[in-house]
């Protein structure tokens, strides 16, 4: 069962908005034979120009579904988010089932609804094709130096060994032009 945590920035989440989100995103449960108990994190934000941004994150056992959409109409944005998440689930399930079929194991997601003409084209393009492979050594540096290296190279991300933690980290450029840092941890 999917539980919803819905938060609004510059917007009060009304019962109508909450019900619409729960109804639309809740339909993803049909893709799972055993519906997982998960929390769907939904963030709805409005801007001065009356546009909205909807972010939905659903952490599952083996994968995290995440989608974000900006739209002038809140309800249209929710519909677009639902379509994106549905494509992600279908793509993930197709890959997992294909992999399990090769390993002669039982398919964990046997009930994928029939594809519509528009999703059939997308599902046929699910093959992962790595067109380039690259190797490089990770240099010890701090995150500030990594951002400078990334900018010098003109890349959107940069992988490095954190001088302080001795772990592998990634800096990246966000859509808003600021920077993000991903740090790895040992399990």
UniProtKB/TrEMBL annotation:
It holds the Pfam family Ribosomal_S30AE. Coiled coil: none annotated. The keyword Cytoplasm applies. Signal peptide: none annotated. Keywords: Cytoplasm, Translation regulation. Residues 126-181 form the Sigma 54 modulation/S30EA ribosomal protein C-terminal domain. Residues 95-125 are annotated as: Disordered. InterPro entries: HPF/YfiA_ribosome-assoc, HPF_long/plastid, RHF-like, RHF/RaiA, Ribosom_S30AE_C, Ribosom_S30AE_C_sf. CDD domains: RaiA. Its main location: cytoplasm. It is found in: Cytoplasm. PANTHER family: 30S RIBOSOMAL PROTEIN. Interacts with 100S ribosomes. Belongs to the HPF/YfiA ribosome-associated protein family. Long HPF subfamily. Required for dimerization of active 70S ribosomes into 100S ribosomes in stationary phase; 100S ribosomes are translationally inactive and sometimes present during exponential growth. This is Ribosome hibernation promoting factor. It comes from Staphylococcus simulans UMC-CNS-990. The gene is hpf.
């Amino acid at each position: 069962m999917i539980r919803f945590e819905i938060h609004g920035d510059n917007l009060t989440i009304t019962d109508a908005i909450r019900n619409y989100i729960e109804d639309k995103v809740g339909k993803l449960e049909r893709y799972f034979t055993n519906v997982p108990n998960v929390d769907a994190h939904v963030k709805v934000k409005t801007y001065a120009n009356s546009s909205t941004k909807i972010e939905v994150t659903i952490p599952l056992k083996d994968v995290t579904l995440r989608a974000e959409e900006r739209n002038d109409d809140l309800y249209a944005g929710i519909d677009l988010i639902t379509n994106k998440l549905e494509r992600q689930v279908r793509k993930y399930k197709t890959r997992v089932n294909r992999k399990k079929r090769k390993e002669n194991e039982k398919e964990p997601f046997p009930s994928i609804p029939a594809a519509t003409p528009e999703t059939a084209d997308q599902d046929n393009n699910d093959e992962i094709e790595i067109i380039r492979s690259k190797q490089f050594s990770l240099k010890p540096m701090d995150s500030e130096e990594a951002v400078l290296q990334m900018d010098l190279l003109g890349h959107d991300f940069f992988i490095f060994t954190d001088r302080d933690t001795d772990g592998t980290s990634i800096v990246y450029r966000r859509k808003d032009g600021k920077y993000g840092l991903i740090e790895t941890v040992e399990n």
